[in-house]
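Moderator note: this is an archived Q&A kept for reference. The question asked for a predicted structure of one protein chain; the sequence and the answer are reproduced below.
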Amino acid sequence: MRIAPPIELTAEDEEWLEKCSRGKVTAVRLAERALIVLLAADGHTNRQIGVRLGITEEKAARWRGRFLAQGRAGIEQDAPGRGRKPTYPPAIVAMVVRRTTRHKPEAATHWSRRVMARATDLSPSTIGRLWQQHGLKPHLSRTFKVSNDPHFAEKLEDIVGLYLAAPEHALGPLLR
């Protein structure tokens, strides 16, 4: 029989976990994870935690392990790779962004969703989603500028990526 590793909390971690587990505006999943860690620190087994909280033993073990390995950051966010996978590969997305930012359509001043869809064999709604993800609005601007920078698409993705998923060290002071 495997024995769950014990958790020893600092006073600061214990205070933070108590606050998270009882907070009225804390996300439910974070509150549950904080409670799992608190119960584990009190010496409860994963099975006892599971029965008490109405969760599986594996779930209790997962969050105990994540806290031991990564500390607070381990329970604050889900592991990467969760969620729906992208429908289109990065090469197609880059091609749409490149075409939007570097080329003009024939006999037109700017791209529309329909015109871009015909040019790329994608649906207009897909084009709209890709433009939205990358902050492109060529159909709304009267003077849309086509970039001459050969690395514009990569730079654009980096900047938009920073806005959508800022690094933790940049958000640290804001979250405390």
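Archived answer notes: The mean pLDDT is 85.
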